Structure formats: C-alpha cells, structure tokens
Amino acid sequence: MNNKYSLICAISLLLAHPLALADTSASVSANVAASSNYFWRGITQSDDGATVSGGLDYDSGKGFYLGAWASNVDFGDTASTSYELDLYAGFSGEFKQLSYDLGYIHYAYPDAAGDIDFGELFASVGWQYFTVKLSHLTTAQSDSSTEEDMLYLELNAAFAVFSESELGLHLGRSSGDTVMEWTGEDDSYMDYGVSLSTGGLTLGLVKTDLDADDDIKAYVSYALDFTL
C-alpha cells in the first residue's frame, strides 16, 4: 500500500473511531474557502482562475495531527486533472520560546491521466513573528525524468496591524532538477508574497522571478473555519 492510501486509511479510521475523540483535549475541525486564484510557491495552480477548497483536520491535543484538504485545479495542457487532494500528518509543539512542526504531505491528483502525485517531508521552526520552513521532495510522479530532487526553503512573517488584522510577508526559494522539469526554466527560482487578512478575508500579491511568470499577481480569498 503506497503512502497516499496509507494516509487516507489513517485519517478515516481516526476521524471515524469514537476512541479518537475520547480524550477531551482532542478536536476535529473543518474549513472551506473561495479564492480568485490558487498559488503554490508563486505559481498559479488554477490557470489564474477561481477555486473552491475545503479541509478536515484532527488534532490530538498532544502534538500529533493529521488531515486532508482538496481544491479544484487547472494545469492547462500540462496535465489533465481537475482537482488536488492533499493528505498530511505531523507533530507540532513548543520548546521554550520556539515553536516547531515536523510532518509529511502527499499531493494527490486522483483523476489525472497519468501519475503526477508527489510527496514532501517538511520541518519548520517559529520564533515570535517569524517562521522558517524547509520542504524536501520524497516521491515524485512515476514518469518523472528527473532524480526527484526538489528543495523549498521559505521565510514567513506575520504582524498584527490595524484592528484585528494581520500583515503577512513571504519569501521562498525552490531548487532542484524537478523545478527545471516543472517550470521549463532554471533549476531554481524565488517567489515573494504579501497579504493582509482580517475576519477570514485575505487580499494578497504574489510574484516570482521566473521569465514566464514574473508579473505581480493579485488575489482575494475568503475562508471559514468550523469546530466539529
């Protein structure tokens, strides 16, 4: 059984089994969102079109968590798939003044004509307003011509501004042979982002230094979270 279906089974069993929520510290939450565009590391995943997404999360209350998230996607002629399903699990917590998060995420495209799924291990450390995160490709599509090499390093910052609003800043760098295969350009590129969020509404700007996608792009999104 591959990683994708192992994680699906784990999520289904934990969320369905009464013992999973026997501990009062455990919780299950859901989220839904609509956005004018879906960006992943600075690159549109919806051909600059609107998306609707939703997710389900289980938090043990003791650090361990797992969940699933789905959104419509549009890769044009690159791949014939209509939606993305992300499955993830990890462990997060705090040590003195530092927060940390270690986990695995699998990006699945169930209705794709070929196998374009891939997975990543990630680790992040946060301090006050800042978070540094490193993601490393562990599995790529079976027909990949590369050595499945991709590394993503990002720095994020969040500051409270105005009344109950948050200013987000993002800087990321993708590198590796897989980056060249996906973008058709160099084996590395930078992406930048800034956003302002309040009450579930987010306005943002995104840019990369890729020749084919170097314009500043704007998006607006609205998200709702629910405790189940």
From TrEMBL:
Protein's organism: Pseudoalteromonas rubra
> Matching InterPro entries, A to Z?
CHP02001 (IPR010239)
Q: What is the recorded name of this protein?
A: Histidine kinase
Return the Pfam families for the record. Answer: Gcw_chp
Q: List the top taxonomic levels of the source.
A: Bacteria, Pseudomonadati, Pseudomonadota, Gammaproteobacteria, Alteromonadales
Q: Which domain of life is it from?
A: Bacteria
